[in-house]
């Protein structure tokens, strides 16, 4: 792998820059301080070279550029799997015999496809972000590690995960007032081409003189919901009864609201303006646009120290029962205690 790095003038308007780059397989990740709301970093994936899609236990890796095709060849050798129709297909079998929660994490899983991206590259990159894979997981990804009841897909049929490998990446540090443009090259043949892409991005960034101007779209303001008020109320009352019986300690219900959104980038602009958060994202895939902001951090990982911090949201566990299926009140109390003190 060849790392290409280009210093660029500070870019104070990342959204205006991303507007010029927005197309399929691009994304914008941003962060801001919780207290001051001051923006800290912006990360723009201007061009992706690989796309990874996971459906249940199958991961498909597809090249999006000739440079990505060169990386796909390396992955084919690493996984000892042939390329067919410009894609690599990896299948992982869930081991249902392993009961230990910690050991489950070491079993083969679709996450090995993501780990393989980095293990297959022998050359150490010059910059920690030169080889970057970014994307999204669905909640259903948990099914590979837990035995959960199967729910029929209704309004959400998105893949279990979608990840990209960046060919061109722009990193903006708002605190240091600096910017870098990075390129990942997987074959010497594409070095000149990618170097030119970085120069073009640098010139484009120089010409961004003003902030993003949101667009107004003529769209319907009608809101629909997948569960009406009366049905939702029934579910709430039903779960309240389960809590009274002691079957569960708590429950978090949800339902989906829908409204037409013709200008996703403008909607993200207003979200960013009204709710600057440590975790802001805008992802444009070939099938959808996903954007959001959250003040919460579920997990923080420090690559320099190889340490992770977990901030779990409220959860629940199965009732404590003996071998005959009867409630074991000592075990039950222990599980409740663990839930109350598991921060």
From TrEMBL:
Gene Ontology terms: biological process: L-tryptophan biosynthetic process
GO molecular function: anthranilate synthase activity; metal ion binding
Highest taxon listed in the record's lineage: Bacteria
Domain Chorismate-utilising enzyme C-terminal: 229-324
Pfam families: Anth_synt_I_N, Chorismate_bind
Catalyzed reaction equations: chorismate + L-glutamine = anthranilate + pyruvate + L-glutamate + H(+)
InterPro entries from the UniProt entry: ADC_synthase, Anth_synth_I-like, Anth_synth_I_N, Anth_synth_I_TrpE, Chorismate_C
Residue ranges the record marks as coiled coil: none
Transmembrane residue ranges: none
Cofactor names: Mg(2+)
UniProt entry tagged with the keyword Nucleotide-binding: no
Alphabetical UniProt keywords: Lyase, Magnesium, Metal-binding
EC number(s) on file: 4.1.3.27
Domain Anthranilate synthase component I N-terminal: 14-178
Family affiliation: Belongs to the anthranilate synthase component I family.
Protein name (Swiss-Prot/TrEMBL): anthranilate synthase
Organism of this sequence: Helicobacter pylori (Campylobacter pylori)
């Amino acid at each position: 792998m060849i790392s290409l790095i280009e210093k660029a003038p500070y870019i104070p308007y990342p959204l205006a820059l991303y507007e010029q780059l927005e197309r399929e397989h691009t994304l914008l990740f941003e962060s801001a301080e919780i207290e001051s709301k001051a923006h800290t970093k912006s990360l723009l994936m201007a061009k992706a070279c690989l796309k990874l899609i996971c459906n249940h236990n199958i991961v498909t890796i597809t090249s999006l550029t000739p440079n990505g095709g060169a990386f796909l060849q390396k992955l084919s050798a690493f996984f000892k799997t042939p390329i067919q129709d410009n894609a690599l297909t990896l299948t992982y079998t869930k081991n249902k015999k392993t009961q230990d929660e910690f050991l489950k994490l070491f079993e083969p899983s679709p996450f090995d496809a993501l780990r393989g991206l980095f293990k297959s590259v022998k050359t150490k990159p010059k910059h920690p972000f030169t080889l970057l894979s970014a994307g999204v997981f669905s909640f259903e990804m948990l099914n590979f590690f837990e035995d959960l009841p199967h729910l029929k897909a209704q309004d959400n049929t998105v893949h279990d995960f979608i990840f990209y490998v960046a060919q061109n990446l722009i990193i903006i540090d708002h605190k240091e007032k600096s910017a870098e443009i990075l390129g990942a090259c997987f074959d010497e043949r594409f070095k000149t081409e990618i170097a030119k892409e970085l120069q073009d991005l640098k010139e484009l960034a120089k010409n961004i003189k003003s902030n993003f101007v949101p667009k107004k779209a003529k769209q319907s303001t009608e809101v629909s919901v997948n569960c009406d008020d009366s049905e939702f109320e029934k579910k709430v009352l039903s779960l309240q009864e389960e809590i009274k019986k002691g079957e569960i300690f708590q429950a978090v219900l949800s339902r989906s609201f829908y409204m037409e959104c013709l200008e996703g980038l403008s909607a993200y602009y207003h979200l960013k303006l009204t709710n600057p958060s440590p975790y802001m994202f805008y992802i444009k895939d070939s099938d959808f646009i996903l954007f959001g902001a959250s003040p919460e951090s579920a997990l923080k990982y420090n690559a320099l120290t190889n340490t992770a911090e977990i901030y779990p949201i409220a959860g629940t566990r199965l009732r404590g029962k003996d071998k005959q299926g009867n409630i074991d009140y000592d075990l039950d109390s222990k599980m409740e205690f663990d839930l109350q003190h598991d921060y």
